[in-house]
Amino acid sequence: MGLILNYQDGQTPLDPDQIDGLKIKTIATQKQLNEFEQANINEALVWIHSKRKITDVLTEDFMVQLHQRMFGIVWRWAGQFRKTQTNIGVDWVKIPMEFRGLIDDTTFWIKHETYPPEEITLRFKHRLVSIHCFTNGNGRHSRIMADLMAAHVFGLEKFSWGHHALVESSEQRSAYLKALKMADLGDYSPLIRFARS
Ligand SMILES: Nc1ncnc2c1ncn2[C@@H]1O[C@H](COP(=O)(O)OP(=O)(O)OP(=O)(O)O)[C@@H](O)[C@H]1O
Ligand SMILES: [Mg+2]
Question: Best mutation site among 8, 177, 182 for ligand 1, i.e. most ligand atoms within 8 A of its Cβ?
Answer without folding.
Answer: 177
